[in-house]
Amino acid sequence: MTDVDHSSWHKVTVRVPFASAKHASIAKQVIEVDKELQPQVVVRTIDVEGEELVATFTTLTIRLARLASNAFLENVDLVVRTIQEFGEDAERRPAL
Amino acid sequence: MPGKIRKRSPLKLPDKPYIALGLEGSANKLGAGVIKHAPNGSTTVLSNVRHTYITPPGEGFLPRDTAQHHRQWAMSVIKDAIEKAGISMHDIDCICYTKGPGMGAPLTSVALVARTLSLLYNKPLVGVNHCVGHIEMGRQITGAQNPVVLYVSGGNTQVIAYSQQCYRIFGETLDIAVGNCLDRFARVINLPNDPSPGYNIEQEAKKGTRLLPLPYTTKGMDVSLSGILTSTEAYTMDKRFRSDGRADDGDKDIITPQDLCFSLQETVFAMLVEITERAMAHIGSKEVLIVGGVGCNERLQEMMGVMAQERGGQVFATDERFCIDNGIMIAQAGLLSYRMGFQTPITKSTCTQRQVFRTDQVHVAWRA
């Protein structure tokens, strides 16, 4: 992997703001579990910066950049909707 | 002989009530269920909610669209299950989800929700094998002691028997599952997929009057189904085939879709009964438990019943709430695992597609 020259590859950065750093961290932990389907041609990083979820996709082709970032955003949407639906109730009672 | 030596079950009575949420989405059914294990040893289904992705007639369901359906319905199905159970998410002990086998994208969509809930509420995750879920729910509902299990659905066709903490596969399909065979034929003759193609084939088969010759392909303990599908489809190209089911002016030698549904069912079900019987004879069992979506088929239950009776045994089957994919079976198998100390760390909570996560790879710690 270290021998591959990524300088001519495409790079997409996606920043998603969350209501709190905790929620952004939850999203990171949930989404990063599944590996990219083609790790040789799609290099993904996911980090939390403050209250933002930041993902970068370094890909061999533009098509792969579209696919990877699209799939990522679909997953973020699902996590966000889950937090939206259950987040308040989860905070209501402290976990025993 | 199984069951002769009564071993003590490693699963002790629970010290307190345990409640589990189960999430299922390996095919086109999205299910959420809540189950409770009480200190007196009883098991109660608190809720069992399901929504099915139904495609137009002639179309099957593809991974991408199925995953989209699950993502769309996940929140309302889960909320419904929690509300119907009359509990709060805080009350549950673990979140069980289908790890596999199944379709990749739909499985992962459900796993994402499971992981998020796990982190939000700080609850452990339990990854469950879909097939083991069917078996454990079948055992729980019917009370069958140590049956030969015929697991038949759109994605799986296996004959399973329990031995030494493992559900061993005695026989299986060499190519496609029986439900897949039936569903694909339903598409060829344009049957609706509502409520399920298999159900509609069953209804059409009742109107069939002619048994057409189809290849009968049992291979020892296994079956092969793709050839039968091709042969049945070939009949629709036969010049005797009448897709509207009506004869032209007294012409008796016609083939109707109903005849084909009837012939297909009779042939594949006879094959399944045969391989089940082989397993029963092999291990000396008198009980058959039919699980999986195709297990709802009353003709299959009837044919299996005839065979079992001839052997002095009996057939156990569940109704459509439990034989069709559902969340409660995942909760049941998951909670049994959890009570034996099993958990899935979030970093390992991936999904495994079909063929790779086999029924016999699960360590059945909760049985003797």
UniProtKB/TrEMBL annotation, chain A:
The keyword Transport does not apply. Coiled coil: none annotated. One of its GO terms (biological process) is tRNA threonylcarbamoyladenosine metabolic process. InterPro entries: CTAG/Pcc1. GO terms for cellular component: cytoplasm; EKC/KEOPS complex; nucleus. Pfam families: Pcc1. Belongs to the CTAG/PCC1 family. This is Transcription factor Pcc1.
TrEMBL record, chain B:
Keywords: Acyltransferase, Cytoplasm, Metal-binding, Nucleus, Transferase, tRNA processing. It catalyses: L-threonylcarbamoyladenylate + adenosine(37) in tRNA = N(6)-L-threonylcarbamoyladenosine(37) in tRNA + AMP + H(+). Its cofactor is a divalent metal cation. Substrate binds at Y151, V152, S153, G154, G155, D183, G198, E202, N297. It is found in: Cytoplasm; Nucleus. GO terms for cellular component: cytoplasm; EKC/KEOPS complex; nucleus. Its EC number is 2.3.1.234. Binds 1 divalent metal cation per subunit. GO terms for biological process: tRNA threonylcarbamoyladenosine modification. One of its GO terms (molecular function) is tRNA N(6)-L-threonylcarbamoyladenine synthase activity. SUPFAM superfamilies: Actin-like ATPase domain. A divalent metal cation binds at H130, H134, Y151, D325. InterPro entries: ATPase_NBD (IPR043129), Gcp-like_dom (IPR000905), KAE1/TsaD (IPR017861), Kae1_archaea_euk (IPR034680), Peptidase_M22_CS (IPR017860). Residues 45-331 form the Gcp-like domain. Pfam families: TsaD. It is an enzyme of class 2 (transferase). Belongs to the KAE1 / TsaD family. This is N(6)-L-threonylcarbamoyladenine synthase. It comes from Steccherinum ochraceum. The gene is KAE1.
